[in-house]
């Protein structure tokens, strides 16, 4: 059995869905199905029950899932110890001006306990680069938000946050329980500088061309709302100063928190980081 095949099996066994497992593994579904079928043939046992109702674990599959998790964890520890012995146990993490996110706090604590031999270097970036320096080779992995151009990158979703409009507390719309984008038509919005990723810019402008002051950082966005009465945007979990309010937007797609890294980067520190991030942001 190859470790790669065991990773495939664990993904399917945890998701109990071939499509979701394939998306998690950043591969298409047919080769994943073939790999699991070949694994069953090699072991001479049925691992998964497949039916119109979905996928479930067979008794042999439950045993393999437990053993595979242990084996994969041990293999990851070996990779990290080898990296540490070679002096390469350093990983640079890009964070999108959101270092106080509850998931990031849990991840920092968990990673430090799990891998005390690994040095974590943090590079915080402003709102003009959603990849946090990933494309420029400044970081190994990014904790950021989508959407952005994912060409050449592997992107793994960690969490989805509802989004609201940031308004002055004395704005008449701030007293509403919820808003729709149409309620904000004709209002001035914050803008990102020219050259900012178009997908990123479009999302934070509600999918429409907008006019307003140019900002580069979260605090600049909040100040633009406070001083100019412009419309800002923020995940609902963020708490602005008392002079501002965040009103949920009913027709705005969630802001997706993701881990991103360069496709084909085999650095074992990245794999371990993303695995721990997935658990930390899910809790």
The helix/strand series, from N terminus to C terminus, equals HHHEEHEHEEEEHHEEEH
Distance between the termini: 32 Å
Enumerate the strands of the largest sheet in spatial order, edge to edge or round the barrel.
4-3-5-10-6
Question: Which percent range describes the beta-strand content?
Answer: 15-25%
Mass-distribution shape: globular
Q: How many distinct beta strands?
A: 10
Note the main sheet.
5 strands, mixed
> DSSP helix count?
8
Helical residue percent? Answer: 25-40%
Class inferred from helices and paired strands: alpha+beta
The chain-level mean pLDDT equals: 89
Unreliably modeled segments: none
- Rg, Å, rounded: 22 Å
Structure in words:
This protein has 283 residues and is an alpha+beta fold. It is built from 8 helices and 10 strands. It has helices at residues 3-15, 18-25, 29-43, 59-85, 102-114, 198-204, 218-228, 268-282, and strands at residues 48-51, 54-57, 90-96, 119-125, 141-145, 153-161, 163-168, 232-235, 244-248, 255-262. It has a 5-stranded mixed beta sheet, covered by helices on one side. Strands 8-7-9 form a 3-stranded antiparallel beta sheet, covered by helices on one side. The protein has a two-stranded antiparallel sheet with strand order 1-2. A hairpin with a 2-residue loop joins strand 1 and strand 2 (54-57). Helix 5 crosses helix 8 (268-282). The longest helix has 27 residues, at 59-85.
């Amino acid at each position: 059995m190859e470790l790669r095949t065991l990773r495939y099996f664990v993904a399917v066994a945890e998701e109990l869905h071939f499509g979701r497992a394939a998306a998690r593994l950043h591969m298409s579904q047919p080769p994943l199905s073939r790999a699991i079928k070949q694994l069953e043939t090699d072991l001479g046992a049925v691992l998964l029950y497949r039916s119109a109702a979905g996928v479930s674990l067979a008794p042999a599959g439950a045993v393999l899932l437990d053993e595979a998790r242990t084996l994969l964890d041990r293999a990851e520890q070996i990779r990290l110890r080898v990296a540490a012995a070679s002096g390469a146990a350093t990983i640079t993490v890009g964070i999108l001006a959101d270092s106080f996110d509850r998931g990031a706090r849990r991840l920092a604590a968990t990673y430090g306990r799990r891998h005390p031999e690994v040095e974590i270097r943090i590079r915080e970036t402003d709102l003009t680069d959603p990849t946090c320096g990933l494309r420029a080779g400044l970081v190994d992995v990014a904790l950021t938000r989508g959407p952005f151009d994912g060409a050449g990158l592997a992107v793994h979703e960690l969490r989805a946050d509802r989004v609201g409009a940031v308004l002055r507390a004395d704005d008449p719309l701030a007293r509403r329980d919820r808003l729709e984008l149409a309620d904000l038509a004709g209002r001035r919005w914050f803008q990102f500088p020219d050259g900012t990723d178009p997908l990123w810019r479009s999302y934070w402008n509600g999918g429409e061309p907008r006019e307003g002051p140019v900002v580069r950082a979260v605090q600049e966005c909040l100040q633009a709302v406070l001083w100019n009465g412009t419309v800002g945007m923020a995940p609902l979990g963020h708490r602005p100063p008392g002079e501002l309010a965040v009103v949920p937007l009913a027709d705005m797609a969630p802001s997706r928190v993701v881990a991103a890294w360069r496709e084909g980067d085999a650095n074992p520190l990245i794999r371990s980081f993303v695995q721990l991030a997935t658990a930390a942001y899910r809790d």
